[in-house]
Amino acid sequence: MADQAFVTLATNDNYARGAMVLGKSLRKHNTTKKLVALIGPQVSEPSQSVLKRIYDEVRVVDVLDSGDTAHLAMMKRPELGVTFTKLHCWTLTHYSKCVFMDADTMVLSNIDELFDREELSAAPDPGWPDCFNSGVFVFRPSVETHGKLLQYCTEHGSFDGGDQGILNGFFSNWATADISKHLPFIYNLSSIAIYTYLPAFKQYGGNAKVVHFLGKTKPWDYTFDPKTKQISGSEQDAATHPTFLLNWWTLYSGDVVPMLHEEYGEQPFHSGCVEFQHSETVTFESEQGESRSSHAHAQASQSQQMSSEERKQKWEQGQADYLGMDSFDNIQRKLDTFLK
Ligand SMILES: [Mn+2]
What we know:
Its main location: cytoplasm. The protein has 340 residues and is of the alpha/beta class. Helices cover 45% and strands 14% of the residues.
């Protein structure tokens, strides 16, 4: 149906990658619905181009620029910036019904049957099951509802600081009013639940239709070697099921990374895949040739003052420190330690 759509949100290039994988997973499972991505103004041009190849509609939402009620709401509650961007999905009134999905979700089968449900349908949150998890929900775009939600935001704020608190406050009878609005947990299976109730996961997990990578560490925070299918990095967070993570990386490295390469062209970028990092750096080294060593020392000392978080951001913006910390020699050394 042309007037029904899956909608997601990406406010930066990392979440954009999640959105790319989500969109690809929906296409792979032959959805008949439209795909819409709401993006923040920070999403880079090449990422926008890839999203446009996967999604029917990519819409830049800049609440700061909007000059309307959303902007006013934002001025009263500046801490809810991303939330206001998400609530923007209610303004997509050229669709009669939508399913919102977080960019850190991925579908494992066709889920078009969710459009048989009514607003607001969602699955229980594993942390507090009388609240719904706002990573996957069915809604009806409406300017009126959007206005009421914004008003609710300014009056009550969010009890958890994000959209889930607001939506649970606004649709407050979800837990008790209508059981048909309770989506089965398999439509929003968070990896956290696997560890909190393993026997249930063993019993029902095989039927999972949507996996939600809840928690701090997202799939794109890892590093993947497409040859060996090894996922590495992020020791602190074991809450992700390895099979789901591998599904994500297989789709990302096979279907999304080639598109990113096409859109970035000569511009370097950090794909997160070991072999791509390697070949990009080789290309750069052969181009830059001799000028490398003369700058290497100064650059190296400069980059040591940068935190690893800053450095990661630089990578993602395509500003790798090729002459210093991210030089071929250093990356080669790192790769060698993995290969041992
Ligand atoms: Mn999420």
